[in-house]
Structures are given as structure tokens and as C-alpha cells.
């Protein structure tokens, strides 16, 4: 099932649904799938529906075509900004990417080509990044007198370390898909965009097959790890396990393992 949302001025976002997997496609090939305020606002509306739908177990974010995931913000829009619009630009992107990062289901960025500026920032808000071999990654704002404004400075340091992140941002240089894999920015590479699409479907189906409550608990544990003392980690882990052992899905998972059969999770 596919649904298209027009964001004005030819700016399109397509949402595809296959079973319990929703795919958000930025579909602006003429702009290399660049993001704008209207596009981000429409994404917020789409996220409202995703957050409310208990049938969605995985969200995939990708771009249309073989050459560009998201090639950053829309420069034609940026050049005409007033300070008030610049603030709105930062606000709408920041809040959108934080919603994606905190979504209760796993998120996959399927990077099909250029992943620059806001494109890298939205990809870093996802839990898992996979890419085609032709992908290029960067925060090149230095080249146009701008700064990464959608949380990229913090997320990139967290993912690949302060030294490598600083080099990417201060030089404005792109890195290849192989370098992104070596740096830990990307989880898996595929030879072509077609192979990436097939691999994304396979990975999404795998994630959708896990127990939803366990998936949510794991995401919460990952997100709340920074700054905890060993005793706090112990207490958190014990509380999560104690809760999961009260769920139907946990009992199903343990029983299915002992009975050597596939588990059938219901989200309860």
C-alpha cells in the first residue's frame, strides 16, 4: 500500500506500508530529495500516525531513486531565510529527528546515494543505517558558510567519536561508504541500490518479527545508558527484566526456544 502526501510546490513524501513495516520515502528527485520546512512539517504529520498505529513494528526512512538518500536542506529555501524562518527551520528539523530517534519501534535508514547535511542528520536519528556502495556521507555545511543545525554535531560525535566527527565537520569533506562502514557509522553495505532495497526488506522483516515490548525495552535501555553508574545500570536492567518476565511475549519466546519452534509474538 502506498500513500502520497503533497507538501506544496511539488514537494512529495510517499509512505509505503507492507504488513507491519512502514517506509517513509522522500520523493523530490529534482532537488536530490533535499529537505525543506514544508517537507519536515509533513513528516511530523506522518509521525503522528505512525506513533498511534500499534500495527507498525518497523519504520524505514529512505529517498527515491538510485543517487540520493537526502542531499541536505533545500538551499533555495535557505538563501531567502529571515532570522525568524531560520529559527523555525532549526526547530522543525530538531523536533522531527528527535521524534524519529525516540520512536518506540526500530528505525532503519536505507541510504541510497548522497547522504549529506540534513540527510546525514536524519539518518543518524535512526537506530540502524545501511547503505549502497555508491553512498557518500558528510556534514558539508562549512563549504557554504553554514553549520549543522539539526543535531548532527552531537549525534556524529556519539556515533564515530569526537576526533573523526570534528575532522568531517571542520573540513566539510565527504566520506565513502567503505569509510562510513569502517568508522561504525553504517552497519552494512550492499553492492547496489537494488540490493540495498532487498536487504532493507529482509532486515525490516527480521526486526518486525521480534517481540514488540522487548524491542521497545531494548531501545529505552540504549537511550538511557549515558551517565549511569554501575549500580544504576544494575537497577535498570533488573527492572526491565522483571517487567518483561510478566509479559506473554517473553513466556512465548522462552517456551518456543525450549520447544525448538518459531515464536509467535502478539505484543502483549
Features:
11 helices; 7-stranded mixed β-sheet; 268 residues; single chain; 11 strands; globular; 2-enoyl-CoA Hydratase, Chain A, domain 1; alpha/beta; 4-stranded mixed β-sheet; 2 domains
Description:
With 268 residues, this protein is an alpha/beta fold. It has two domains: 2-208, 2-enoyl-CoA Hydratase, Chain A, domain 1, CATH 3.90.226.10; 212-258. The protein has eleven helices and eleven strands. The protein has helices at residues 37-52, 75-78, 83-101, 118-125, 152-160, 162-171, 177-183, 193-208, 212-223, 230-244, 248-258; strands spanning 2-6, 12-18, 21-26, 58-63, 68-70, 107-111, 114-116, 128-132, 136-138, 175-176, 188-190. Strands 1-2-3-4-6-8-11 form a seven-stranded mixed beta sheet, sandwiched between helices. The longest helix has 19 residues, at 83-101. The relative contact order is 0.10. Residues 4-11 have low confidence and may be disordered. Keywords: Lyase. GO terms for molecular function: enoyl-CoA hydratase activity. Belongs to the enoyl-CoA hydratase/isomerase family.
Amino acid at each position: 500500500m502506498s500513500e502520497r502526501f503533497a507538501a506544496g510546490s511539488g514537494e512529495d513524501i510517499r509512505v509505503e506500508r507492507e504488513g507491519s513495516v512502514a517506509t517513509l520515502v522522500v520523493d523530490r528527485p529534482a532537488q536530490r530529495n533535499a529537505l525543506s520546512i514544508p517537507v519536515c512539517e509533513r513528516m511530523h504529520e506522518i509521525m503522528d500516525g505512525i506513533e498511534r498505529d500499534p500495527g507498525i513494528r518497523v519504520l524505514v526512512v529512505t529517498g527515491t531513486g538510485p543517487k540520493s538518500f537526502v542531499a541536505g536542506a533545500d538551499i533555495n529555501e535557505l538563501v531567502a531565510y529571515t532570522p525568524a524562518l531560520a529559527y523555525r527551520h532549526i526547530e522543525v528539523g530538531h523536533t522531527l529527528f528527535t521524534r524519529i530517534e525516540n520512536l518506540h519501534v526500530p528505525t532503519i535508514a536505507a541510504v541510497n546515494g548522497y547522504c549529506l547535511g540534513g540527510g546525514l542528520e536524519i539518518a543518524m536519528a535512526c537506530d540502524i543505517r545501511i547503505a549502497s556502495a555508491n553512498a557518500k556521507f558528510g556534514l558539508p555545511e562549512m563549504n557554504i558558510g553554514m553549520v549543522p543545525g539539526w543535531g548532527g554535531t552531537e549525534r556524529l560525535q556519539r556515533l564515530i567519536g569526537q576526533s573523526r566527527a570534528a575532522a568531517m565537520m571542520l573540513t566539510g569533506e565527504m566520506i565513502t561508504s567503505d569509510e562510513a562502514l569502517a568508522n561504525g557509522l553504517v552497519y552494512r553495505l550492499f553492492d547496489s541500490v537494488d540490493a540495498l532495497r532487498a536487504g532493507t526488506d529482509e532486515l525490516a522483516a527480521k526486526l518486525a518479527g521480534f517481540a514488540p515490548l522487548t524491542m521497545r525495552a531494548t531501545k529505552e535501555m540504549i537511550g538511557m545508558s549515558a551517565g549511569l553508574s554501575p549500580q544504576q545500570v544494575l537497577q535498570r536492567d533488573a527492572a526491565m527484566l522483571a517487567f518483561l518476565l510478566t509479559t506473554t511475549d517473553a513466556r512465548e519466546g522462552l517456551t518456543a526456544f525450549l520447544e525448538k519452534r518459531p515464536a509467535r509474538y502478539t505484543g502483549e
